[in-house]
Amino acid sequence: MPAPTAPLLIFFYYCSFFLSLACSATSSGDISAILPNDAASLLAFKSSADLDQTLLYSLTERFDFCQWRGVKCAQGRVVRFVLQSSGLRGSFAAGTLSRLDQLGVLSLQDNSLSGPLPDLSALSNLKSLFLGRNSFSGPFPVSVVSLHRLMVLDLSFNNFSGLIPPALTRLDRLDTLRLEWNRFTGPLPPLNQALLHSFNVSVNNLTGLVPATASLSRFGSSSFSGNPGLCGEIVNRACRSGEPFFGVAPASGIPSVSAPLGQNAESHGAATVVGVSPRLGSQKKQKKTGVVLGFTVVVLVLISAVAIIVTLVKGRRNDNSSETRSVHQKKPSAVDAERIQATPPLVDPPVKKPETEANGKVEDASRVQRRSRILVFSTGEPELYTLEQLMRASAELLGRGSIGTTYKAVLDNQLIVTVKRLDANKTAATGEEVFQGHMEAVGLLRHPNLVPVRAYFQAKGERLVIFDYMPNGSLYNLIHGSRSARSKPLHWTSCLKITEDVAQGLGYIHQSSRLIHGNIKSSNILLGPDFEACLTDYSLSTLAPEGSVHDNEDPDSWARRAPETRKSVLQAGPRSDVYAFGVLVMELLTGRHPSQHPYLSLPEMLGWVQAVREDHDGGAKDPRLGMLVEVAAVCRSVSPEQRPTMWQVLKMIQEIKKSVNASDSTA
């Protein structure tokens, strides 16, 4: 029997070999071979976008990916993938969702995803794409233009940059387009979708004429605000006479006419403008083009010759007149002569035509000049008073801060406002244009826990910021009272309410913009009509050079500063605000100034807080007080990477609040 034994052994050997290969493929994570395409795509997306493992997607013997969080299926295929506000952190890797060809709705908004967007052209059935309130960057995702069924596109509150592609006009079903709070540049395409009813491109760097299409004309100027370079009837800003209405010239250097000009010329009955197009392939048109170009060259040569002669004659006249007046003037240099030669004469008095970039700078300068010496109200704010009324108002000093002096102003119409007069020495390094753009961005922030900025004013050496007046004073006065009174901590449930209010306002600033507060302290928290805590002076410290707002000789100011910013090694950021928030929580719980807070371990810190509060509430050791101390401790982590975001802090506080409400209901 030796002969049949050998083939049998070989057979078992191959069986075991292939079985081991199958097991190793499964154990190594090659899930695409054993899973449906949709499930494999979801797991691939999770591996790059969920670095903190918040999505509990798992595989069992009887798994059903259609039951996973945020997933909705129809006939076994994923049609909705919605993970809004899910705490995702990571990137949207290429190819991860490309196999979800039946996907109709994709929502990843309000997370912490970063990096560029992958190619989305494979999602041919996509109708709604929500990617707002993340940290995506890179150019506009041009693959979106191929999604012809797309109705909603929201890329707002990200870091996208570059041009908005003109091909966006092809999405004829689009009814919502949100691109605000990014870094897009260049002209705005002539969007004219008949169904477009929600549109916003505010707070970008767009330039040029806003196309007066029927669709864009339906939206107010607030949809375009925060773009200093835009002009036209829609935004109520006149374009300069030399404004390049055709937008940006192509890279090849050949001047061409963009779609906005062609559309506007056609719709307004203007003269037809002919541009270079690859479709003009007939010999007749090529000959016409050659004749036109040749004639243009001849004319330019003649004009240049005349310009040179006129310049030389004028230079001699200037030399003769300078001797008579005894004024020493320089003769035109060779560079000047070349520049004059290259400048064609215009119908108007001859002036040097600047480049496109120079045009933008001149326009921005004139716009800043127009907005200097006038009271500029925030977008959407009614103009309830004039600069003259404000200057005539009776003023009462409320306090002097690190960035300026605050006054209570009562106007002649009995309206009361708070006026912040910024320190000219500390903000001198910030130019007028930068200040204007910054205040326009700050003026857009609206939240119940923010004191709204209503208007601002700037002139030479003078800058004012106008807030609402809050009659109930500051949190500092509530904690520390008058100088004669002894500071005492608030009841810990009041502390919980105030910390939630502050976290709400601060989280909104971080999430809805690229701004930070920069100077969190109890005197910058005011109490509203219902004693809700409202942040003020937000984002004003960034107008001053790094470190100049904080007084290094003031121990409280030093204690509030995050360790990484005390020697100006790093610029202040959102995690610096988180550190100052932790210091504020300790100030609330103990009634002690920040410089009196010791650096202790968490158990020792809890013991210190309870000891300080003994005289106030009898030393009651409520375990939820310890939870609030723990929040303060994690916010005060030395390493910024170990600190949570403000939204994470807010969720911690809300969990504590839930436990308080639950215990009160069972009591």
Automatic annotation (TrEMBL):
Domain (Protein kinase) ranges: 392-656
Cleaved signal peptide residues: 1-24
MF-aspect GO terms: ATP binding; protein kinase activity
Sequence ranges of Basic and acidic residues compositional bias: 350-364, 548-567
Region of interest (Disordered), ranges: 319-364, 545-567
Protein topology in the membrane: Single-pass membrane protein
CC per GO annotation: membrane
Record-annotated membrane-spanning stretches: 291-313
Assigned keywords, A-Z: Leucine-rich repeat, Membrane, Phosphoprotein, Repeat, Signal, Transmembrane, Transmembrane helix
Pfam family, any one: PK_Tyr_Ser-Thr
Compartments it resides in: Membrane
PANTHER family: LEUCINE-RICH REPEAT RECEPTOR-LIKE PROTEIN KINASE PXC1, PROTEIN KINASE DOMAIN-CONTAINING PROTEIN
Name assigned to this protein: Protein kinase domain-containing protein
The organism of origin for this protein: Trapa incisa
